[in-house]
Amino acid sequence: MTKVLIAFYSRTGVTEQLASAIAEGARAEGAEVRLRRAREFVPAEVMAKAQGWKEQADAMNARYEAPTEADAEWADAIVFGGPTRFGAISAELKAYIDSLGGLWFQGKLNGKVGSAFGSSSTPHGGNESTLISLYNPMAHLGLIIVPLGYADPAMFKAGTPYGASSVSMNQAAPPSADDLEVARFQGRRIATVARALSAAHVTATKA
Predict the structure, then answer these.
(1) pLDDT (tens digit, 9 = 90+) per residue, 85-139?
(2) Is the pLDDT of residue 204 over 80?
(3) In this structure, what DSSP letter does residue 38 have?
C-alpha cells in the first residue's frame, strides 16, 4: 500500500480542509495516509493576540499528531502545506522541515515523492510564491517534486499548477468546492505517482 504523509500547518482551519481533501484523494487511490499538524512554538502571550488562535490550535492538535522524523521515513510521498507568511512558508511548517536534517544526512528521503499546497488571506497574497518556496527544501531533501500542471479539468477552475490553494478573503472563508476538487486531484496524483515509483523500484531491485 502506498504511504502518504501530509504534514501541514493551519491556524484557522482553511489549510486543514485542503489537507483533508488531499487525504481523501490519496485514499481513493488506495493509499494509507497520515495527517499531521505542525505545532506552534511561540509563547502563549503571542497566541493570545490573535482571537481564537489558541482555541483553534488546541482543537486541531487534539485531532492530529505532530509530524515526526519517523513519519517522513515511513512515507513514500510527503505533501507539505501551510498558509503563506509574507509570501513564503510559515515558520511552524519550516521548523518541521528543518528537523529532517538527520534523514537528509542519511539519504533516507531520496526518491520519495514531494508536493505542496497552501492558502492565503488575500488574492495575490503569496500562494504561488509560497508553494514554489517549498520546492527548494524538497529539492535539497532529495524528493521527486510532483506539481499538478493542468492534468485534470479541475485545474482550469481553481488551484495553481504548483499545488492546491485557497484564498480566505481575510475572513477564514473555507475553500470553495473547486478548491477542494483540486486538492482531491492532488491527492490522487501523488498516490498514483508514488505507487508507480515504488513499483519501478521493486522491479529494479529484483532485476
Answers:
(1) 999 999 999 999 999 999 999 999 999 999 999 999 999 999 999 999 999 999 9
(2) no
(3) P
Residue 59 sits in which domain range? 3-206
Give the domain CATH number at 95: 3.40.50.360
Alpha-helical segments (H) within 48-176: 53-63, 69-74, 91-98, 101-106, 127-141
Identify whether the C-beta of residue 116 lies closer than 8 Å to the C-beta of residue 19: no
3-state secondary structure of 138: helix
For the record, the C-alpha cell of 193 comes out as 505517482
- 179 in Cβ contact with 18 (< 8 Å): yes
Question: Distance (Å, rounded) from C-alpha 199 to C-alpha 122?
Answer: 41
Whole-angstrom Cα Rg for the chain: 16
- Is the separation of the CB atoms in 104 and 140 below 8 Å? yes
* Residue 116 CA, distance from chain mean position: 5
Element (H, E) at 145: strand 144-145
The answer to whether 172 and 13 have CB atoms below 8 angstroms apart is yes
Q: How many domains does the chain have?
A: 1
**How far apart (Å, rounded) are the C-alpha atoms in residues 129 and 16?**
20
Q: For the whole model, what pTM was predicted?
A: 0.95
At 205 the pLDDT is 66
Torsion, Cα of 90, 94, 95, 100 (10° steps) = 160
Assigned C-alpha cell, 204: 529494479
